């Protein structure tokens, strides 16, 4: 008499755990950022915002060049060379920037309003990593958009200034133009990060828009109108003025004695963006989604 024994399936080979450390953290962040990029590019508002920024830059930059040269020809302002790239910087700060803010606002606020933040947190339970991934995806996209819009604004402004009626005022130095375009792209990317941080902290598109608009535009204007060295000094350390100092364009806002040097302006703007993201991360980790 024989006895047969049934054996279960052979156990699968255990998968070795990935080693912990910086390499794993970078790998996890890259995977989360890739997922966030898929979500970002699949939303129509992203591409509408990018198209609006491109259209505004390509339209406002040449119009600004014409207006600037016209004022010089009528002796309203001192005559000087008008770099085409600085016209693109002007268009980015006073026009394309609004499209970038509108593009960045729904990146987090729309997930709160639609409750899609719940599956997002299930996919990436580490909340700080989720916000970091959104920041990487958003800033990379906005920086690339800034390169395109800045180049378009520079070229259209230069072409307009070749017209015989305003010829002789415009200049285009490739090295300076490239530096201006890179700086304005970094500026727009940091503004997008600041907007994302505000949206994450406030959880409302309307509230975040009001806060960002007040910080960028209303508060500096109020401080300058109030007058006094202290008000001007503080205004120059707010995000807009610090960003203008960073892009180093005299045509955007003029020069001020209290203005920061370009490097310091960039660091101040970076600190504002980091503070907004830190506030967003604090709210995201401490409050229920």
From TrEMBL:
Keywords: Membrane, Transmembrane, Transmembrane helix
Transmembrane segments: 47-67, 87-108, 136-161, 181-199, 206-228, 263-284
Chain positions covered by the region annotation Disordered: 1-22
Identification of the protein by name: ABC transporter permease
Low complexity: compositionally biased ranges: 8-22
Domain of life assignment: Bacteria
């Amino acid at each position: 008499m024989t006895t047969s024994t049934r054996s279960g399936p052979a156990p699968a080979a255990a998968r070795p755990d990935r080693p912990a450390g910086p390499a794993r953290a970078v790998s996890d962040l890259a995977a989360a950022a890739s997922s966030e990029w898929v979500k970002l590019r699949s939303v129509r508002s992203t591409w509408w915002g990018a198209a609006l920024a491109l259209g505004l830059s390509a339209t406002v930059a040449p119009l600004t060049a014409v207006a600037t040269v016209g004022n010089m020809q009528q002796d309203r302002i001192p005559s000087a060379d008008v770099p085409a790239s600085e016209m693109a910087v002007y268009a980015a700060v006073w026009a394309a920037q609004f499209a970038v803010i509108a593009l960045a606002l729904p990146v987090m606020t729309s997930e709160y309003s639609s409750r899609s933040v719940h599956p997002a947190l299930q996919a990436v339970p580490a909340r700080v990593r989720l916000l970091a991934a959104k920041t990487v995806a958003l800033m990379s996209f906005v920086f690339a958009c800034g390169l395109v819009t800045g180049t378009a604004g520079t070229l259209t402004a230069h072409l307009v200034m070749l017209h015989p009626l305003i010829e002789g005022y415009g200049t285009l130095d490739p090295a300076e133009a490239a530096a201006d375009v890179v700086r304005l792209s970094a500026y727009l990317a940091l503004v997008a990060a600041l907007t994302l941080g505000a949206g994450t902290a406030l959880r409302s598109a309307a509230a975040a828009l009001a806060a960002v608009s007040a910080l960028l535009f209303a508060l500096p204007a109020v401080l300058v109108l109030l007058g006094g060295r202290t008000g001007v000094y503080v205004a120059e350390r707010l995000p807009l003025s610090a960003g203008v100092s960073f892009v180093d364009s005299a045509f955007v806002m003029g020069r001020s004695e209290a203005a920061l040097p370009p490097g310091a302006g960039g660091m101040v703007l970076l600190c504002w963006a980091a503070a907004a993201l830190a506030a967003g991360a604090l709210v995201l980790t401490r409050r229920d989604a």
